[in-house]
Amino acid sequence: MQSLANHFLIAMPNLQDPMFKRSVTYICEHNEEGAMGLIVNHPIDVTVGELLDQIEIDNDKDSSAADQTVFAGGPVHTDRGFVLHTPKIGYASSKELSSDIMITTSKDVLASLTYHDSPDAFIITLGYSGWEKGQLEQEILENSWLIIQADPEIIFSTPPEKRWEKAVSMLGIDISQLSNQAGHA
């Protein structure tokens, strides 16, 4: 299977695991060893400003960025934060995932998020989603996921509660026509 990096995994309606139900997961890395991704549409009850306070990083409480919601990125290492952001010159600690999306765990980037030198758009997730060798491929064969090329607009510009529907609509599928049953033709 070719790499699914820079793709979305869209949970099928039959996927009932509370962490992944109606999730959109951005795949950051996928190779023969496994895959790593971040759920981009499951907000938690923590703002960026509150998170930065908890990890003792100064932030501008009056900025709109401080009021943004943090997301549950997945069930693995929920104590680790990940920042997906639009490209920004000078962020040497960020890794380019596509021409429109970068990722970092760096504190210097976190420290800039509520100030004028921040990226144009970003989201923070706590935790990530991980798959061991062959696990994701098996879940795809079991019809747990729909797959599409990632669209930064869904991550950075679409309200979280609309991301799943918007991702599905990119496939040209009427979500009400998807079955809750898994199977093969």
Q: Your description of this structure?
A:
The chain contains 5 helices and 10 strands; from the N terminus they run ββββαββββαβαβαα. With 185 residues, the protein is an alpha+beta fold. Strand 2 (24-31) and strand 3 (34-39) form a beta hairpin.
Share in helix: 10-25%
**Average of per-residue pLDDT values:** 93
Low-confidence stretches: none
Please, how many helices? Answer: 5
Radius of gyration: 17 Å
Number of strands: 10
Q: Which descriptor suits the 3D outline?
A: globular
Order of secondary-structure elements: EEEEHEEEEHEHEHH
Give the CA-CA distance, first to last residue: 21 Å
* Major beta-sheet overview: 10 strands, mixed
Our estimate of the beta-strand percent is 25-35%
SS class: alpha+beta
Family: Belongs to the UPF0301 (AlgH) family.
Protein name: UPF0301 protein QNM18_26120
Outline the secondary-structure elements.
Layout lengths: L6 E5 L12 E8 L2 E6 L3 E5 H7 L14 E4 L3 E10 L9 E2 L5 E3 L2 H6 L9 E11 L2 H7 L3 E5 L2 H5 L6 H7 L16
Parallel strand pairs: 5-9
Antiparallel strand pairs: 1-2, 1-10, 2-3, 3-9, 4-5, 6-8, 6-9, 7-8
Defining key terms:
10-stranded mixed sheet, AlgH-like, 17% helix, 185 residues, UPF0301 protein QNM18_26120, 5 helices, alpha+beta
Structure summary:
With 185 residues, the chain is α+β, with helices and mostly antiparallel strands.
